[in-house]
Every structure is written in C-alpha cells, then in structure tokens.
Amino acid sequence: MANDISTQSPARSGTASRSSWTVILCWITVLLEGYDLVVLGAIIPTLLKTRHLGMTAGDATTIATLSLVGVAIGAVCVGPLADRFGRRLLLIGSVVLFSVFTILVPLADSVAMFAGLRLIAGLGLGACMPVSLTMMSEHMPAHRRARASTLTMTGYHTGAVITSLLALQVTDNWQVLFYALGVAGLGVAVIQWFRLPESDVFVQAKEAPKAQRVAFTELLKPNFLRASIGIWVASFMGLLLVYGLNTWLPKLMNDAGYPVPTAVTQLLVLNVGGVVGLVVGGYVADRRGIKGTTLGWFGVSVLMLACLSIKISSDLLLNTIIFFTGVFVFSAQVLVYAYVTNYYPASVRGTALGSASGIGRIGSIVGPSITGALVTAGIGHPWGFYFFAAVAVFGFLAVLTLPRGTADAQPEVAVSTA
C-alpha cells in the first residue's frame, strides 16, 4: 500500500499543480481585461479637460464604442479559432495582441489613430474572457457552477479597482496606465507560455475521430426557445449596464458637480462592490437557486441606479449607494452565465454560452454609445441613470421569463459528427 501511495502521489500532485496554474493564470487574464476596459472610463474626464489631440465628448464616445466593437468581434471569433488551434495558444496570443497595442495607445498622434489602436487591442481583449471562463469551468465540480463563473469574474473587478487606484495617483499622467497594462500583459503571456497547460477537453476532442457539433438552431427549438430568448435579453441588458457604468460613471458624476478625483474614487468604490457582489452572489445562488438570486440582484439594481440620479450631499451615503450598485449590477450579469451552465445539458451548453456572450457584447457597445450621446447632449446626469435603471427593469423582466430547472432535467441534444 505504501508503494501505491508513493507512486500515485506525484501524479496527483502534478494534476493539482496544472489545475492551480490554470485557475491563477485565467483569473489574472480576466483581471487584465477588467483593468483595460475600465481605464478609458477613468481617463475620459482628463482627456476632455486637457483636450488631448483636440478630443471632444463625441470623440470619446467613438473611441469607447470602437474599443467595444473590437471586444465583440474578438469574443465572437474566438470559439472556432480555439477549437482549431487550442485554447492555450489562443489565450496567449490574445494577451500578446492587446498588450502590444495597449502600449502603443499613448503614442497615437491623432484621435483616429487612438481609436484604431483601441479597436485592435479590443480584438485580443475580447477573446480572453470566453477562453478563461471555459478553462476555469473545467476545473470546478457541477455543484459549484455559479461560483465558477463569479470567482473568475472577480478578476475583472479587481482589475478595475487597480485601475481606479492608479488613476488617482497618476492624475494627468494617464499614459502610465497604458504602459503599465501593456508591460504587465506581456509578462503574463511569458508565464502562460511556460506554465499554462492545454485544456484537457480540447486534447480529448483532438484525439477523437471526429468533432461533435451542435447547430445554433437547437437553441430555437421548443425545449430551449423560452430560455434562450430570456437569456439573450438578460445578457444584453446586463452587459449594457456593466460597460456603460464602467465607461461613463466618472464623467456622469463629474457632470453632477463632483470633482474629477472624487468621480474616479467612485469608480473604485463601484468595482470594490462588484468583487463583493460576485463572491456573495455565487454563494447565494448555489444555495438558494440561480434564477431567484438573479431576479433579486436585478431588482435591487433598479433601486440603486435610480438613487444615483439624485444629487446627494453626503459623501458617505453616496459612496454607500455606489458600493451596493456595484454589488448587485455587476454580479447580476455573471449570474445569467451561471444560469446557462446550470440549465442547458452538456451537449448544447457551449453553444448556449457562446450565444449569450456574443449577444451580450452588443449590449456592451450600445450602453456606452447611448450614455455618451446623453453626455454630449449635456444631460448625462440624471438621464444616464434613468436610462440605466430602465435597462435593469428589462433585465429583471427577462430573468422572470426564464424556466426553472437544471441540466439534469433537460434532454440531451443529438449531435452531428460530420
């Protein structure tokens, strides 16, 4: 028996080590994405105040929109590429792509070049989160599906917190934020090259004689149609809120009369709340049910966003409201993804998650665009928050339509091996 233990322990130790590196490196990758996608919102007030490259509010809206267009394209395209070339290589390549073009952003000599560099960086950025979520989910047991999604996404808001803290320190020297991210990303890519293992699922699929495929139209069949429509609407609304708030909160609060440093601090508070909400939301959802928890999260989000439309004189009260806005708004969207992994059977789960992410990314483009238009029109505050509250209402209604049940109760889908 001693011999058995001695011969098996190294194998178990090696497996644990591979799993640990996967979890750590995927979490850090999502952290980098959170840092990047919040950095623009943190510096927009400074760019407009200093008229960098002659930038206007309309230009800032265009840059924010193109950044998210790149993210959306990267998210949509990563699935087929990861299936062909492997998740490990796609993740490393994506990190390198957005890191290099992020370093180049401060060197732009025109608004058009600034926007173009952000667009290309977004292509790499958009591929990172889906691959990271997939690899992380493969290392969590089924009964922790909600926590698998929310744990991964704590990296996003941790990155946002780091951005906010750095933005408070560098003030007008905003270029440092991009250089720091680019160098850090390249360092992470080097570590991933040596330490990140390939996904076991991908390896097994490559060894199989033929790959299994599920058509997108399966999601439109009677068994799944109700759930699919509800998820797409909820994901659209959820990501609209996440990206709209992270891009424009400092400017909205600045328009409400708060100084720029205070507005950036509020972005920090918002994302600290996001981290707390993800940890709490995943735990509550696994214990109390994902649908009910998601409904509650969207419902409280409506209230918090409506409160932000009011000019509040107490800093403590305002920061408390912003904190709880982050707690509920940001984790509500991630719980939608958790519902997908819990409701759909394995044969169609990947297709369902990919569609939710892709359609949700459209919301991530629409949110900053509409909010930017309100800012340009001079009515960002309070109408930006009226808009966000209405979006949260639609998210709540979409979740309300979702059927209850788990993957175990759903029939498996016949797959094609052609």
SSE topology string: HHHHHHHHHHHHH
CATH H-level homologous superfamily name:
MFS general substrate transporter like domains
How many individual β-strands? 0
* SS summary, helix count: 13
Main beta-sheet strand count, sense and barrel state:
none
Protein architecture, described:
The model is unreliable at 1-12 and 414-418 (pLDDT under 50). The chain is globular. 81% of the residues lie in helices and 0% in strands. It is an all-alpha fold and 418 residues long. It has a single domain (13-409), classed as Up-down Bundle (Growth Hormone, Chain: A).
Write the layout of secondary structure elements.
Layout: H1 2-50, H2 57-85, H3 87-104, H4 111-137, H5 145-170, H6 175-195, H7 200-207, H8 225-255, H9 260-288, H10 290-307, H11 315-343, H12 346-376, H13 380-400
Please summarize what this structure is.
This protein is mainly alpha-helical.
Keywords:
disordered N terminus; 0% strand; 418 residues; 81% helix; mainly alpha; 13 helices; globular; single chain; Growth Hormone, Chain: A; disordered C terminus
